Amino acid sequence: MTTPTPSPPTAPTRAVRVAATLIVLRDGASGMEVLMLRRAEKEADQNSGASVFPGGTLDAQDRALHALCNGIDDTAASLRLGIPENGLDYYAAAVRECFEEAGLLFAGDADGRLVELDEMAPQELIALRLAVEEGADALRKLCAERGWRLAVDRLAYFSHWLTPLGMPRRFDTRFFVALAPRRQSARPDGRETVEHMWLRPADAVDPARGLKLMNVQRRILLQLATFDTAEACMEYARGARDIPLIMPRIADGPGGRRPVNPGEPAYDELSRIDPEGLGHGRYELAAGLAMQLSPRVLRVTALCGDALVNSYFVGGDRNEWALIDGGQGDVAHEASLRASAPGPVRWNLALHGAPLPHGHRIDLGGCTLRVLRQPGQEESFACFLLEEERTLFTGSADPSSGLDADEFEWLAPAYGFLRRYR
Fold it and tell me: How far is residue 175's CA from residue 55's CA, in Å, rounded to a whole number?
């Protein structure tokens, strides 16, 4: 039998760095294409060699670029990003990082026309990029000398991701989209980025392509693949409101530890049982898996026929336990439950055929299970509400029918993961 991994001590607090990324789009012969850069190979870098969009962390010079940003001020930028102030830092950083890593500069002349870097002499362009990569005040001075303004109004806010808790490095990243500037050619810097590719999003995520993709890049590419043209993507981004923060969670499973994204079956459960990102949750259930969902609740999963089914031990301060749905006559499941029992089982409760009336309470010592029955199912079906945790143990796909849904927040189903009801 698989037993849960013991929880280590509280996870150390990790600094979160703020970052901006620019997703550059264009229309190719076969559809919309996105610019991908391959990162240089580096030791002790888990993302070494990964294919990414241009981007990086904000730094002090980005605030100094506000006066050179065209078409949007800090108030409007901050409102768009949903932050109190300094939202324009992200727009400026996205433009700066794109120039440093990809050689594409979203800047315009006095008439608002984007600069045409391909018209410059190669050595002049190389000198410009080297100057900007040195940091400090270089990009501001460059724009001031040439009369350029950063074309941040060409950027549209697209997505917001936060690296999962428990990762060694964490980034709070705002993603923008923009149409590729005309008469500018992407060129990796040769140090941080060593190759560039214009790919259809669907091709970039195709395993046959063989790209190393981080979770966030893969998910965004899948979203980009839903747009037929670059302008359609831009129109969506310009009109999007209330862009949510997306934070995956880390869990273990047959394929090793990986991020679990919102919308995946295990996501709600992970947010409850592993809020600090210690990594002891699971993204896939398995026969024989015993999972501690809280100090009061232990779930045991078993294979019954062709389906994985859950049984639950629920107990309180007296170390007397109620067993909910304990095996249904399956010998292997019952044996697994006996081996997993955290203490003596006083109550054996069935979701189907339970004789207890609606509203009956079972005192477990410091916590209470209450029997709930849906109208019309008094003889055959019962749910059990753990009142202190607002958790409903149920075999029904829709337990809200006829019940007061305000009484419970979590569903502990006979099949699948713990999930939030609202």
Answer: 9
Which amino acid makes up residue 301? T
- Closest to 38 in 3D by CA, of 258, 223, 209: 209
The answer to the question of residue 42 being in a domain is yes
Helix (H, G, I), strand (E, B) or coil at 332: helix
pLDDT tens for residues 191-237? Answer: 889 999 999 999 999 999 999 999 999 999 999 999 999 999 999 99
CATH number at residue 394: 3.60.15.10
Count of structural domains within the chain: 2
Phi first, then psi: give them for residue 389, nearest 5 degrees.
Answer: -110, 5
User: What is the separation, in whole angstroms, between the first and last Cα of the chain?
Assistant: 33
Tokens 């709600």 — which residue? Answer: 268
Buried b (16+ CB within 10 A) or exposed e, 153-166: bbbbbbbbbebbbb
pTM score, whole prediction: 0.89
pLDDT score of 328: 60
H-helix or E-strand spanning residue 392: strand 391-394
- 3-state DSSP call for residue 124? helix
Q: Are residues 111 and 214 in the same domain?
A: yes
When mean pLDDT is compared across 38-47, 170-179, 227-236, the lowest value belongs to: 38-47
